[in-house]
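fyi for ur records
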Amino acid sequence: MADGFANRAAAVDRPGAFPVEEFGQLARAGFLAAPLHPELGGCGLGIDASTTHELLRLLKQIGRGNLAIGRVYEGHVNALQLIQTFGTAAQIQRYGREARDEHKLFGVWNAEDAEGLHLVPIGPNRYRLQGAKTFCSGGGYVERPFVNGKLPDGSWQMCIVPMDEVQTRCDRNWWQPMGMRATASYKIDFSGVELGAESLIGEPGDYLRQPWLTAGVVRFAAVQLGGAEALFDFTRQYLQGEGRTDHPYQQERLGQMAIALESGNLWLGGVADRLVAYDPQFGGQAQGAHPHQGQLVAYANMMRTAIEQICIDTMQLCQRSVGTRGLLSPHPMERVIRDLTLYLRQPAFDVALAGVGGYALTQTIPADRLWQA
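which gave:
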């Protein structure tokens, strides 16, 4: 499937496009339901910590095919993890049925401008939304996004908006990116949308709870690593086609890329092992604190930071190996470099790296045991 995604990626590489056919294929193959618990008809992919290895490999493969598809699918997995962790039994059943039987696409739209989005109480168990969200990946196609906002007391509340049942205003001109064009990450104004309490997930502040907030970075890092692997393959194919495989500097660069990618795969395995050891469910149970929360958050931030640098190094080595011709459309390297460059710009990079050092400075454990699961 990932090979097919790669073959069709150029066709949707434009603002306003979306990989509809590809998500139809994912739905028919069961991947929209896969993150659900087995009793809901899924595979427990990602929510069952023992499947973390499989989830990260899947996300990497999808990213190898098309980073835009990987970004939106990762958001779908994120949303179903949040529902199954913080939702009521009725909500889990309801949204699980929609993902499994109706092939609804879920997402998490949390970015916003300065004015933000507010949930205004308008009666018993009734709320009106006021404001907009930005970077709404899959806008116009994601049918069940988390659209989180502030309550009057300033607390942050998760809620899901049934996009096919409400009226919103979508600013498509807002999304004019250099890369990740096919994610359709528009600005959407939700002002006037009314929701009942049944659409609110968890308690105020749950979205910001650790380790769920930070441990989730491992998902997008896996997608990004898939993009780097695609660049490695494209670079190697190009040099083989040009008969330049015997050049010592090209061999050196490919060697550096191979080492970087293998390091990334070891990071995927390492963080998966730690999530498995942490708790049987992704991030643990919502009811209580965990003694190793700080370690897991720091390790996830290490993995995210390391893979970002691996991707940057891979892009640079690819560009040096291939030169200008590989950066011209319609060569697929040009698109992957644009997509990966934009996708790597995830929030709070400095905070993530400082958090790793801050955690290490609070510990007295010898270095060789600091990150033991």
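Residues 248-278 form the longest helix (31 residues). thats all i got for now
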